Amino acid sequence: MVKTLYLLRHLKSSWDDPGLADRDRPLALRGLKAGKKMARHLRKTGVEAELVLCSPATRTRETLDAVRGAIGDPEVRFDERLYAASGRELLDVLRGVDFGVGSVLVIAHNPGLEDLAATLGGTVQEKFPTGALATLAFQCVWSELEPGSCELTAFVVPREL
Q: What CA–CA distance (Å, rounded) separates 11 from 45?
């Protein structure tokens, strides 16, 4: 059975308040606009996640809010391990997903997401900008995800929508 992994980097965040802790930064107006574009894209392409793994940072939570109505009715887990995680750490989290889950959307940060996509076999042609979505397909169970075990089937950034 083919499984699907969606990697979504949070939308553009605001730097308006320099005293705000990094994890508390909200989305910028540009990010909110991009979120509407991404939600339309997700609906149009029929993306439905069974499980969302989301960093607890404000900008990732707000990114989830922006696309939530477009991805079905997934279970959502906010996971501290996803904040500032490396690609290796993200892979470790994914290996813990229940074998019966067919699709997962990870909403997190760079450089971890870009590293994870490259590690799994989804070499992207450009950097992983804010709001970028990589779609990877594979045929093993989550616990057996290894470098090179996935195929990048789509990559989209908000400015292309």
A: 19
Domain 3-10+21-160 = CATH 3.40.50.1240: yes
What's the CA angle centered on 103, arms 158 and 79, to 5 degrees? Answer: 80
| Per-residue pLDDT band at 161 (split at 50, 70, 90) | confident
Q: Would you tell me how many other CB atoms lie within 10 Å of the CB of residue 56? A: 13
| Domain ranges (residues) in the chain | 3-10+21-160
Q: Fill in the amino acid letter for 97.
A: V
pLDDT at 121 over 90: no
- Answer positive or negative: Cα dihedral of 37, 41, 49, 145: negative
- Picking from 99, 108, 78, the residue whose alpha carbon sits closest to that of residue 6 is 108
Let me know how long the chain is.
Answer: 161
Q: Do residues 21 and 120 make contact, with C-beta atoms less than 8 angstroms apart?
A: no
> Position 98: which residue type?
D
3-state secondary structure at position 105: strand
Do the Cβ atoms of 105 and 74 come closer than 8 Å? yes
